Amino acid sequence: ELKVEQNPLFLSMQEGKNYTIYCNYSTTSDRLYWYRQDPGKSLESLFVLLSNGAVKQEGRLMASLDTKARLSTLHITAAVHDLSATYFCAVDSYQLIWGAGTKLIIKP
Amino acid sequence: GAGVSQSPSNKVTEKGKDVELRCDPISGHTALYWYRQSLGQGLEFLIYFQGNSAPDKSGLPSDRFSAERTGGSVSTLTIQRTQQEDSAVYLCASAFDRGAFFGQGTRLTVV
Description:
The structure holds two protein chains of two kinds. By secondary structure, chain A is mainly beta.
């Protein structure tokens, strides 16, 4: 059974700091996606990672994929309050398998 | 339309009534998912449609839940004899080869 594990599940950090969210998965896949969800809202696509070594960046967020290690990271640089949200990763196996989400709170 | 559309956006129903939730996916997307999300929780997989293949119904929590997808497009999730524990946000997503795109969800409240 394919499992997707995110950690941490909860992260509280100060503005200006850097941090990384990890997404580990248990089977071979070369497609991984990151999403953001704001409270009371639906999920919004952030990054699409389609091959080993893929790296995507948008503003203060950068995502990477290592298919050999079965690991993706979402790195936050110099965090700002507006990045507070819950972040999900999803692995594309025969269907999408989701991590449990990381609730990120960034304090001013 | 340009995105995934779900209706209604909010639904309040009495315990024991049946409800139908509708999802209009992005045109051309062969995959369609239904999820349930309770407050502050992750995504609970319900059902997955892929093209003309038999749907994966392994996430449906009971036989009160059913879903269909007509003509490979619009999908309806039906909950019969609703219970209070069915209260949640029901999210639909359609997908092709670049991940899933979500509708805004239907917030179901069973009173």
